[in-house]
Each structure stands twice: as structure tokens, then as C-alpha cells.
Amino acid sequence: MRLVDRLTDDMKQAMKDKDKLKLSVIRMVKSSVKNEEINQGKELSDDEVLTVLTRELKQRRDSLQEFEKAGRDDLASSARDEINVLMEYMPEQLSEEEIRALVSEIIQQTGASSKKDMGKVMGALMPKVKGRADGALVNKVVQESLS
Fold first, then answer.
1. What is the pLDDT of residues 116-132, one digit of tens each?
2. Per residue in 28-80, pLDDT tens?
3. In terms of CATH, what superfamily is 3-87?
4. How far apart are CA 82 and CA 68, in angstroms?
5. Which residues of 50-63 are buried (b: 16+ CB within 10 A; e: fewer)?
6. What would be an example GO MF term here (predicted)?
7. Structural domain boundaries of the chain?
8. How does 34-46 read in b/e, with b if 16+ C-beta sit within 10 Å?
């Protein structure tokens, strides 16, 4: 089943269940997907929908950090709930050990030796972990491996 179809089915189910949180999150995601389809002028593939989901998830995580800094527990709780709904549509996340193994493999393939080669490593690595790992964690692991 395509990801867009799954979102639509889950939206209908959330309406029936009167699950306001899930319904609002799915509506926001579907809106973002529709906007992206309009911008690209075509229907999005599952990979492209995953990119939109990843962007939405990153926005929620950034908001969560800001809310926690500001001591807004009510908004932080809401952001956490939205993140949990979005995570249902993401592929299984890689562990830090799996990311480290991939980073080591890419460093060997590219011959990277210093932080100057970070762009080369990230460029080769990100397509392999797309949607399955947080970019900040990947960045941290690559920096540690290259130092």
C-alpha cells in the first residue's frame, strides 16, 4: 500500500474514532504532501512522501526543543504527541551502532580522512539512511569518526 493511501485510510479511521490529535497531524502531513505535489507538478512517490514526513518530523523536533527551553510543558507535550503520530509512518529507525557501521563503511569507500571530507561522507551516507535516522545524530557520528 502506498504511503499516501495509508495516510488517507488512517485519516478516515481517525475521523471515525474521533481521534483529534491523529486527525490534525495527518491533515497537516497530507496538506504538505499536496503542496509538494503542486510544486513539483506530479504525484509524489513513496520516497518523496517520506521526505515530506521527515521534514515535518524535523520541524516538530525543533519546536519541541524550543518549547522545552522556554519551559512550555503544555506545548512540549503536544509536540511529543505529534512526533509519536508521525513516527508511525516512518521506517524503522537505525540504532547508533548501525549508523556507526555505515559511517565506517562510507569512510573506507570514499577514502575520507579528515573533517574536510565531511561533505563527501555525508553526501554518500544520507541517501542510505534517508528517513531511517535523525540527520543530527548522523552528523554527530560522522564528525566523531572523522576527528
1. 878 888 888 888 887 78
2. 999 999 999 999 899 888 888 888 998 898 899 999 999 999 999 999 999 99
3. Uncharacterised protein YqeY/AIM41, N-terminal domain (1.10.1510.10)
4. 15
5. bbbbbebbeebbeb
6. carbon-nitrogen ligase activity, with glutamine as amido-N-donor
7. 3-87, 96-146
8. eebbeeeeeebee
